[in-house]
Write a structure and sequence with these properties.
By secondary structure, the chain is α/β, with parallel strands linked by helices. It is built from 3 helices and 12 strands, in the order H-E-E-E-E-E-E-H-E-E-E-E-E-E-H. The chain has helices at residues 7-45, 106-118, 176-187, and strands at 49-52, 55-60, 63-68, 71-75, 86-87, 98-103, 125-128, 130-131, 142-143, 149-154, 159-163, 166-171. The strands form 3 sheets. A 6-stranded mixed beta sheet has the order 5-11-12-10-6-7, covered by helices on one side. Strand 3 (63-68) and strand 4 (71-75) form a beta hairpin. Helix 2 (106-118) runs parallel beside helix 3. The relative contact order is 0.14.
């Protein structure tokens, strides 16, 4: 049999239970926020960072990221992981112009694509092309060094050579991505 209680006692018990449940929920929320902030802080402390020529590079998901004039860039290698390569680069103007590419290395090509087109849209578009006078496999347009053209190819020596608007990125197959990153570092003024 149920105990008879007054409406006053029932209302008092209901309010007390509401306050207890509310305090438990507030406690859970506070503990969740504290836990998240400590975990987030721990994660940030484990992030690998370097400073190179006043640019801060942070390793995020296997890519070295930095900002140049507020624009984010991501590279496979940071500048300290790259050896100095022979280069004669002078001024290049890629902004809002088509960039043609011919490459023997997909990863090196991806570095240029990600930083000049996909991520930042510096160039108007990137398109495969064939250099005039070279053997070309595929149905690509033939371009000259009057066009903005990047040619990535395997060679015995590592170098970045500019001839008019053509840039030849050359080196051993396993080094072409590093050399492409160095090319990007040079045109962005990091190196």
């Amino acid at each position: 049999m149920r105990k008879i209680t007054s409406k006053y006692k029932e209302e008092k018990k209901r309010k007390r239970n509401g306050i207890i449940i509310g305090l438990i929920l507030v406690g859970i929320m506070v503990l969740s926020i504290l836990g998240y902030s400590f975990l987030g802080e721990e994660k940030n402390n484990n992030t690998e960072k370097i400073i190179y020529n006043n640019f801060e590079f942070e390793n995020v998901n296997g890519f070295w990221t930095t900002k140049i004039n507020g624009i984010p860039f991501a590279f496979k290698y940071n500048p300290t992981q790259i050896n100095e390569t022979e280069s004669n680069l002078t001024s290049l103007d890629y902004y809002n112009k088509p960039l043609y590419i011919s490459s023997e290395n997909k990863e090196a090509e991806s570095e240029i694509y990600r930083n000049l087109f996909y991520q930042n849209q510096i160039v108007q578009r990137m398109q495969y092309a064939c250099l005039e006078g070279e053997v070309c496999e595929g149905d690509f347009p033939v371009k000259t060094c009057e066009d903005n053209f990047v040619i990535i190819k395997e060679a015995n020596e590592s170098k970045i050579i500019q001839k008019d608007n053509c840039v030849f990125i050359e080196g051993k197959q396993e080094d072409l991505t590093k050399i492409s990153d160095e090319f990007l570092y040079r045109i962005f003024g990091i190196r």
